[in-house]
Amino acid sequence: MNNDVIYISDKIVITKKGNELYIESLKKGMTMDEFNVIIRSHPEIKITNFLAVKNVILEAPKSLEKFGELRERVAVEISKDELKAIIVLSVGEDDFKKENIKGLYNEIMAKLKDKGVIFGLKQADILMNIKNGVQIVAAEGLSPVPGFDSVINMYVLNEIKPKISDEDKVDFYELDLINKVNKGDWLGERIDPSPGKPGTSVLGKVIPAPRGKVLPLLYDRKTVEEFREGIRTVLRSRQIGAVHYDGDRIGVSNHLEIIKNVDFKTGNVNFDGYITVKGSIEDSFSVVASKDIEVLGEYGVGSVKEIISKNGSIYIKGGVVGKNKAVIKSEKNIYTKFVSDAKIISKGSLNIASYCINSDIEAREVILDSSNGQIIGGNIKAQIKIVSSIIGSQSEIRTNLHVVGFERDNLKSDLEEVLKKIEEAKNNMAKLKAQIIYFQDDYTDESANGLQKLNDDYIEACEKIKKLGDKRNVVIDCLRTLGEGEIRVLKKMFPNTFLTIRDNTLEIREATLSVSHYFLDGEWKQK
User: Fold this and answer.
1) Which residues are within 8 A (CB) of 522 and not within 5 positions of it... i.e. 6 or more apart?
2) What is the pLDDT of residues 140-150, one digit of tens each?
3) Which of 3, 134, 389, 435 could bond 491 through an S-S bridge, CB–CB 3.0 to 4.6 Å?
4) Is the pLDDT of residue 446 over 60?
5) How many structural domains comprise the chain?
6) Mean pLDDT across the chain, nearest whole number?
7) Residues 6+ apart with CB under 8 A from 184
8) DSSP secondary structure letter of residue 118
9) What is the rounded CA–CA span in Å between residue 254 and residue 273?
């Protein structure tokens, strides 16, 4: 075999034929350590069969046996994304001598050019790191910069939180309950995604930049319409009404605005939507709505027949003087300045600014907001807690406060279950959102029905999360309450007040200051 000799000694001979390497042992005596020294001095040798080497050396003398192959002097590897070109050198030690280094550098550059590498060459890095057997980044491309996703800005509902102030002995109790809009009013917008900035591979190819995602705009198509305005898709109201959200979907419900009073001119009012009464509701008249109701007259209402919100909240700015006739009910919260001689039933919170006198109250919680809030007489029943600065009066009018209470351990289990369902619903919503974005990027007439179905499913998932979130908040509010039900007095409680929590009654026979009464482990406790 006519081979070229790479290494020869009195013990072994290493030869090559083409790219293949062969070893022959002439006599015994060479160790594997000695062989490894030889290999380290020949970086161009790549061993592919270690067993052949071992057999030839240990069983010397032994004829030629293939054991490896020649490495490339300059191996070039281009990454899959074509953003990096890496070289590995396998050259002789003489190539690194000062007089030869320029030739080696030129060889490297020629090999890179031969592989098509023309962009992002890092000549300085090559020269600084030039050595055998290490990966050297010889060229680096320019990564594409993804575009920004579309930006969505939506109408923000008023914060439902009473504003209470005492100025010049006039009490103010303000609340923005209903979000009114006119036809054509702005409800939200989506700013188009940006196209991104393309990159360049080490081969000089343009790498397209992924465009930002088009995020979905969710709205009720019956009451809201979209318009193209420059780079924006703008949502505007189709009608006069009140803004609401079902999950993340914005819509505009019917809104009835009564300029003055509800009286003989208007008759009783029963309306599917939101109601604003700018004046008052005369005695014996009723107002019923499917959504929120606000009564904005400074003097409130008197002995109305009833005020009922089937699915929303009620705000009575001036208070209620019920004369033992008025009935007020809501599915959610009720806010008013004061209550006297009325019956109020709320499945949410009852928030009263100043006082509650001789009234029958049922609510999840009863909160008197101001520093001078006072409950005098009547029967106050809450599911979780009752909070007031003052309870009872100096004249010791009988005042009954009843908190139904709850099982704390059961609520903790309920909370864990709700949180688990919220997490599942969020995961489902994220999947639906990703599918919607995919469909919008590849929108066709054929995919329109599928996209609409995904949007409907996404809205349903949003609504489910909102309902679960409301339930979670109620449970957390319960767990923050002391014991298994709480009656909190911020300033003073007078005698002839009867406190009942979980069917256990405590009579207050002496005035007490700033105390929370609660029931826990079968007994009354104070804090």
Assistant:
1) none
2) 999 999 999 88
3) 389
4) no
5) 4
6) 88
7) 236, 237
8) -
9) 5
The model's pTM: 0.71
Which whole number is the average pLDDT over 80-105? 89
Dihedral sign for Cα 119, 120, 126, 129, please.
negative
- Name the residue among 337, 319, 339, 333 with its Cα closest to residue 379: 339
Q: Tens digit of pLDDT for each residue in 391-411? A: 999 999 999 999 998 888 888
Residue carrying structure tokens 């919680």: 365
Of the candidates 357, 339, 380, 392, the one whose C-alpha atom is nearest the C-alpha of residue 512 is 392
Q: Let me know whether 132 and 213 are in one domain.
A: no
Is it true that the peptide bond before 162 is cis, omega within 30 degrees of 0?
no
Is residue 305 in a domain?
no
Cβ atoms of 123 and 101 within 8 Å: the answer is no
The tokens of 336 are what?
Answer: 């008013």
Reduce the DSSP state of residue 221 to 3 states and report it: coil
Taking the C-alpha atoms of residue 490 and residue 375, their distance in angstroms, rounded to an integer, is 12
62-70 and 45-47 strand pairing: antiparallel
Q: Looking at the structure, tell me whether residues 469 and 430 fall in a common domain.
A: yes
Please measure the distance between the N-terminal and C-terminal CA atoms of the chain and give it in whole angstroms.
101
The two structure tokens encoding residue 19: 């790219």
Q: What is the pLDDT confidence band of residue 80, given thresholds at 50, 70 and 90?
A: very high
Beta strands (DSSP E) in 212-313 are 224-229, 232-237, 241-246, 249-253, 255-258, 269-271, 274-277, 286-289, 293-295, 306-309
Domain of 109, in residue numbers: 74-140
Q: What is the pLDDT of residue 377?
A: 94
Predicted local distance difference test score (pLDDT) of residue 293: 95
Give me the residues paired with residue 380 across strands. 361, 401
**Cα–Cα distance between 495 and 511 in angstroms, integer?**
6
Give the phi and the psi of residue 412 in degrees, each rounded to 5.
-60, -40
Q: Give the model's confidence band at 169: pLDDT under 50 very low, under 70 low, under 90 confident, else very high.
A: very low
Do residue 174 and residue 96 come from a single domain? Answer: no
The one-letter amino acid at 191: I
Q: Which of 120-129, 305-314, 365-374, 449-458 has the lowest mean pLDDT?
A: 449-458
